[in-house]
User: Fold this.
Amino acid sequence: MGKVIRSNKDLGAAIRLARKQQNLRQVDVAQKASVRQALVSDIENGATTAKLDTVMRVLAALDLDLSVVPRRTTAFDPTEY
Amino acid sequence: MGKVIRSNKDLGAAIRLARKQQNLRQVDVAQKASVRQALVSDIENGATTAKLDTVMRVLAALDLDLSVVPRRTTAFDPTEY
DNA sequence: GCTGTATATACGCTTAGGCGGATAATGTCA
DNA sequence: TGACATTATCCGCCTAAGCGTATATACAGC
Assistant:
């Protein structure tokens, strides 16, 4: 299911993708999350390792959730795809 | 699957649970994550809104991953439990 | 009780996140 | 190409995350 995040780059990519899919501008997301447009830009570009707090607000603005999942060491499982 | 995180409290609980299940001390996790024991304590108690960066390191130390998932608005689905 | 182990707090310090505000690039389209 | 919309950067500033170190509780087991 969800996209695994292991770096700020990963997070930025996931956020940008979700934002595009919803046809939103950085300003829109920023407003919903109560942050500046500049910060959304930074996060999407992986330019800052934001605070968890901030990340969750931005994700919420995109109707996304953060989730903790066991790190998979198992082999590729085709039934999951 | 994974546990949804919407606050630092949620995160702390998830981390503490995982740590206990692996019979690890805060010191052990701290070392693996290259942070102080005191910080692990703070995070587990939701006392600080840590940086995403730090959170990921701690989770990695517990063989956990952070994941972005769509926020579920759907009704309760018994097949998932 | 006492002793060792684990977790929670404290203090001063450095670093970096996020702000307001503005501006520079970049894209887009008529 | 010009006008507009969107995104990327920059400034100074303030706050808090995280550090090192140390200590204070809490939690065992004997």
About this structure: Chain B has one domain: 8-68. The beta strands of chain B are 3-5, 64-70.
